Amino acid sequence: MIELKEHITPNGEVLLYQGQPDLKLLDALALGEGDIWHSSLDQGFKNIFPEIIYQTVVFFWYAKDFDNLEKSVSWRINPNAFVIRKHVWETFGGFDLDYESIQPSALDFGFNALRYQGVIPLYVKGLFDETIEAINISIKDIYTFYIKNFRLSQSLYMLLRRGIWKFKELNSFRYAKNNFHYKNKSIVLKPRKLHAIQGTPKVSYIIPTMMRQEFTLNLLNDLENQTYKPFEVIVVDATPEESRDASLYNTNKYSFNVIFKWQTTKGSCRARNEAIDLCTGDYIVFGDDDIRIQPQFIENHLRFLQTYNAEACNGLDIRADHQQQDLSDLDKKLEAIGESRWKVGATQSFSNANSCVSSRVVSLLVGNDINYDGGYGEDSDFGLSITKLGVTVLHNPFSVNLHLKPPMGGIVFGGNKQE
């Protein structure tokens, strides 16, 4: 059993800790998005447990730790120097002590908390001193971690890669397989109660489109019905001149500022960048042209980011069964999802169909990478680029869209990406 010390912040948050953290810095961190804090990357834990590559490397943003950041998402917790919100520790019952060493127990806790359970573990430079820890993770503990957290086939793959002919490897695999099983990961940290919006932040909403004027008009109507309306909406439309109906776009129909720009360049990344150049708001919401959004959509993005004191989030994207579905269908789908919807945490993907980012952060990135025009992956690149700045991109289950996915138009035309 691990005995943790207790610290109460000026705003009444109860934190548990091991080691000697900078309590003044900790008080400030507790006001932000994090749930766990450590300085492990300066204590010998950076990229420890490289065996994670045998499970995933491409799709899990946090497989490798980020370089040269003061703060970043990292699940590699030093068990001798970390801080955690008390209710988070109690929700998950602390470390799994089935391991031979406490170090893999902490790694197990951090990994599951980040990947599956909606918890945000953060590396923070200077929270603890930089004393290097001696790290010893046995082969048995490596296979125990795999058996507990991944499919059996992934443990077998690791065994083959590390050497099935090696006695210690094979014996450790058999030991873990015979003594442990896949852990239940259904317990998820509940989201925080959202605060009311502070101030009057201005929101810019970006819609790139092509050959989907009717869908774009439906989205504009949803924006008109928002409980917190956008300050401005920028529509960049690449519909060819011979196929467009300019009369459908009427700026006088809306209570917010709206700019309709006919795109002369090619590509969805260029379209978003052209729109970004026209934005003057405090936040930018990125949306596809083929979505429907609930009236609280923008309000909940702002409330969410302010509650977590964060600058970027990715909303919940729900796929429609067909393109004629509407918000009543979205309500039914959310009801069917039930409680499993309510998970926050650091996002592990990013979607330009539904995301909200502070203008400060967007300006640092200088927009979308136009090298992705004509292909796919610009969403993930944009979200990962934000994360590499040291900005935590959160998953926001409160702002939901219904994604209609019609077969033609948008950034897809004639079966190909717009290029």
Automatic annotation (TrEMBL):
Enzyme Commission designation: 2.4.-.-
Molecular function as annotated in GO = glycosyltransferase activity
Q: Which Gene3D superfamilies match?
A: Spore Coat Polysaccharide Biosynthesis Protein SpsA, Chain A
Q: Which residue intervals define the domain Glycosyltransferase 2-like in the entry?
A: 204-311
InterPro entries according to UniProt: Glyco_trans_2-like, Glycosyltransf_2, Nucleotide-diphossugar_trans
Top EC class for this record: transferase
Transmembrane domains' residue ranges: none
Q: Which UniProt keywords apply?
A: Glycosyltransferase, Transferase
Which Pfam families does this UniProt record tie to the protein? Glycos_transf_2
Protein name from the UniProt record: Glycosyltransferase
| UniProt source species | Thalassobellus suaedae
